Amino acid sequence: MNASELAGRVRTGETRAVDVLEQHLRAIEECDGELHAFLTVLGDTARSEAREIDRRLGAGEDPGPLAGVPVAVKDNLCTRGVPTTCASRILEGWLPPYDATVVKRLRGAGAVVVGKTNLDEFAMGSSTENSAFGPTRNPHDPRRVPGGSSGGSAAAVAAGLVPIALGSDTGGSIRQPAALCGVVGLKPTYGTVSRYGLVAFASSLDQVGPFARTVADAATLFDVISGHDPLDSTSLERPNPLALARLEEGVDGMRVGVVVELLDGADASVVKRVHEAAEALAAAGANVEECSVPEVSYALPAYYLLAPAEASSNLARYDGVRYGLRVDASSAEAMNGATRAVGFGPEVKRRIMLGTYVLSAGYYDAYYGQAQKVRTLIIRAFARAYEQADVLLGATTPTTAFELGSKVDDPLAMYLSDVCTVPTNLAGHPAITVPFGVDDLALPVGVQLLAPALGETSMFQAAAVIEGAAPAGALPQICAPTIGAGPTSTRGER
Q1: Positions of the chain with pLDDT under 50
Q2: Domain extents for the chain?
Q3: What pTM was estimated for this model as a whole?
Q4: Rounded Cα–Cα distance for residues 202 and 361 (Å)
Q5: Which end of the chain lies in a sparser environment, N or C, as judged by fewer CB atoms within 10 Å?
């Protein structure tokens, strides 16, 4: 059952929020031992929130559009009094004194936060294998990765442990795992969703966004979490694009460009599905043509200079003094080095060192400065493309889910998993991935829609059409709870 249906049943009194929660907690208890989607499960706290929803409904109040809907939150979003680790030993046990703005908005819409999900350490990775607390597994084949860095949120939604979840997308960390797990994933326009309370990886690229099993649920969640936030200096002070209200307006007359560079090197099964999605849009009245944005081929190397540079700066705050892990030593300098050596994993260290190098004297202009120029070229190239198209279409990932361990010793191969997603982050534009059939191994395939800044409305309309035309045989919800079966005993908070 999707989030909108659940909220409707709770609001009409057909079922209670506490019963909905208990069924989802039971699904987590039964299935997450193998998947490891969650780092923390908030059983007792979530029960209190669900009881409050039922109390408000009994008093004639409307808790909001997500009344009683269980939601999972990526563990790089601050939750007051609840561990926020970023899947790193250096923050193990840290309890934030405040909630991220998006977490506040979830609760304000009636959602019940059931737990914090696993991720690549500090969101640096494409497989959720870089977590200090162990990898997450793909619900459709536990031998394979769920993608990353928001693999825990993607797996939780795909498995039916929760109907919706939040992740963060710096270079594809929502869209890539959503595609590999067969769910909807949205990276909004930079500035439309508050970053206050999101632990920073690369501040000019990070953006919070939703996972859902349907396009409509993703639109609902986007409407809930978006909007200006005075606590975030990069938050846009303008009306946000409409999502849910105009979802069913269709694509008649819409111009769609199929980006050939977003198909280069992709598996044949992925390319086939993208072309089928293009045909579905054309059949619905869109004007579909191939287009070229050659500058996107420079996005990956530019990203892996810019993002580590920002990470090097952002992660300097983890020094063993202010919060998190502290390894005592004979001097402050030795303590700082020892803490960071023990607290950070290999991939985080790799990116810190790369970022420090490209920002260093003598190399700044040659690397960081050049990468910023390439970023400008990509922004201009997309601007030209959007003169001819309202939305763009391409692959989300060049492959379907790969086997656990198959790329951990080859960073370049792992980084190439993001080749179709990083251009949008560099431009600051929105993009969404929609599940569209499977490959020959019955693994999910996602197709990606891109739009200009604040173009979410048209993008969602096209996504709804693609969703409606997806090949028959929807992917199963591996642990889908049976709503209405009554309360059950579950594990509590951990």
Answers
A1: 485-492, 494
A2: 3-298+374-468, 299-373
A3: 0.95
A4: 21
A5: C
